[in-house]
Amino acid sequence: MNPRYDFASDNTAPAAPEAMAALTAANSGFAASYGADGTTARAADLIREMLDADAEVRFVTSGTAANSICLAALARPFEGVLAHRNSHVATDETGAPGFFGHGLAIQGLDGASGRIDPQALHAALARPESAHAQPPAALSLTQATEYGTVYSVETLSALAGPARERGLGVHLDGARLANAAAAGFDLKAIAGLGVDLLVIGGTKAGMTPAEAIVIFRKDLVPRFDARLKQSGQLPSKGRFYAAPFVGMLESGAFISRAAHANAMAARLAELMPLPLRHPVEANAVFVEMDEPTLKRLQARGWFVYRFIDGSVRFMCSWATTIEAIETLIAALTDVLP
């Protein structure tokens, strides 16, 4: 039996046609290297237009690199970064933020369904500094969250504001920013929230491996390219990392494809015969499932796994189909005790 990866992750989906067409278009003739080409300039302009912001934009190969480089730019080795305890930077980067940041620490905060509890943040900000602990220098937020929930602009402001008042930098991990935008989050509000560095996820949005780093804070721009080069994230053929953003943004597919993924998750949640663990607000569905049922489903060829909080995660993507959802639901119904 061939395993099915339809719902294992939005990373398992193929690249969207708009991204592939843009890659093919960028593969014509000679172009300047290291991001000095016209394709990269066009992609950066489209991102600035989408955000309605005057910002510098750089393109890298992975979210791990993008997030880690950003956090290293905001916190020194003896400092810390506040983040949700189940955020990707806290649980799934194999220590990369500390590696790129030469020892910076991720300090986990509580909060339901992946959203940081404002009281937990205030408590962390109120802690007295000590020479024996790494004081926080930055706040890392995730939109949409690791549990598929979406912050409102007001809620993000209520977190970023106090952090900035205490002198902390603010990083926004937007690996699934397209899904948050498709769910109603206003991308043009980000610059006004006081975000210093934003990562826009391309890979999960339907692109080939490509992520964008948006630098709102101008004093972080000098030598940022040197930081990228040292980290192995200043590719010589940079146009091929920027091109998918051109295709997805010019066509509107960045949002429309994410809206489809969100709609598929909503449909999956509607048909799901198991209890939901978290609100379904973007493209993820988390359910309560006992281990024998999970094993039986996996034995049917469905590659899904137990998540950090003990639930089982189903991710939808731009390529998810109604037929795949109906087939999954039939398999689930069949393996339930």
Account of the protein in words:
The chain is an alpha/beta fold. It folds into two domains: 17-251, Aspartate Aminotransferase, domain 2 (3-Layer(aba) Sandwich), CATH 3.40.640; 253-335, Aspartate Aminotransferase, domain 1 (Alpha-Beta Complex). It is built from 13 helices and nine strands. A seven-stranded mixed β-sheet has the order 1-7-6-5-4-2-3, with helices on both faces. The chain has a two-stranded antiparallel sheet with strand order 8-9. Helix 2 packs across helix 10 and helix 11 packs parallel to helix 13. The longest helix has 19 residues, at 253-271. The mean pLDDT is 97.
List the helices and strands and how they pair.
Layout: H1 17-26, H2 38-51, E1 56-60, H3 63-74, E2 80-84, H4 88-91, H5 96-100, E3 105-109, H6 118-126, E4 136-142, H7 153-165, E5 169-174, H8 177-182, E6 197-201, E7 211-215, H9 224-230, H10 239-251, H11 253-271, E8 284-287, H12 291-299, E9 312-315, H13 322-335
Parallel strand pairs: 2-3, 2-4, 4-5, 5-6
Antiparallel strand pairs: 1-7, 6-7, 8-9
Largest sheet: 7 strands, mixed
Poorly predicted segments: none
Question: What name goes with the CATH superfamily of the largest domain?
Answer: Type I PLP-dependent aspartate aminotransferase-like (Major domain)
Radius of gyration: 20 Å
Q: Biggest sheet, strands in spatial order?
A: 1-7-6-5-4-2-3
What order do the SSEs take from the amino end to the carboxyl end, as H and E? HHEHEHHEHEHEHEEHHHEHEH
What's the total number of strands?
A: 9
Percent of sequence in beta strands = 5-15%
CATH architecture of the largest domain: 3-Layer(aba) Sandwich
Continuous helix count? 13
Mean pLDDT: 97
Query: Which percent bin holds the helix content?
Result: 40-55%
Q: What is the 3D form?
A: globular
CATH class call of the largest domain:
Alpha Beta
Number of domains: 2
Q: Structural class of the secondary elements?
A: alpha/beta
CATH topology of the largest domain, by name, is Aspartate Aminotransferase, domain 2
What is the CA-CA span between the terminal residues?
23 Å
